[in-house]
Write a structure and sequence with these properties.
Number of strands: 0
Number of helices: 6
Structural class: mainly alpha
Radius of gyration: 22 Å
Distance between the termini: 63 Å
Number of domains: 1
């Protein structure tokens, strides 16, 4: 386990930041190559790594330290579609900030800034991540992944343990006398 000395929330942030930096660098290099630019130029590799790292660290920190805490409770109580729409908007703002920071730090020659395509792609990615996270939260960890990968298409025998517990006064209902 990398970074064992860090508390779990910080390990999660570091893990997602590193993964996003690598993915951002690879995506940026493919974009540079597609447009006939130089391989491993600062406006490609470094910009993609910075952009991915900034976006992932901000979004993971937001999720870990704000949205899952009491401050995020009002948002969690909203209907599913409203919840996903609000999170998509929040994610989009953070993603566009990361894109702008990357473009400002490592400007590409003849670049016009953030394009409409960047915004639409960011909106789509924001929606997918918000939707997948919320569905995963509702169904349970990895249930959606198991369903998509086909684990539930073939029945298999599993051992499960169930605990039925009746605690006195846990429902708040008064017992009625039967006549």
């Amino acid at each position: 386990m990398p970074f064992p000395h860090l508390p779990a929330p910080f390990r999660l942030i570091v893990r997602f930041t590193v993964i996003a930096a690598v993915v951002g660098a690879a995506y940026s290099e493919s974009h540079v190559a597609e447009n006939g630019g130089r391989w491993f130029a600062p406006d490609g590799l470094a910009r993609g790594a910075l952009t991915g790292a900034v976006i992932a660290s901000m979004l993971t920190s937001l999720q870990v330290f704000v949205l899952t805490r009491p401050f995020g409770a009002p948002l969690r109580r909203t209907p599913f579609l409203v919840h996903v729409a609000v999170k998509t908007g929040i994610y989009l703002i953070f993603i566009l900030f990361g894109l702008a920071l990357g473009a400002w730090t490592f400007p590409a020659p003849n670049e016009s800034g953030i394009t409409r395509q960047d915004v639409l792609f960011s909106l789509a990615i924001s929606f997918v991540f918000a939707f997948m996270y919320e569905i995963n939260s509702l169904l349970g960890q990895n249930a959606l992944t198991n369903f998509i990968t086909g684990r539930y298409h073939k029945p298999r025998l599993e051992s499960r343990a169930f605990l039925f517990l009746d605690m006195e006064g846990s429902t708040g209902l008064e017992p009625r006398a039967c006549a």
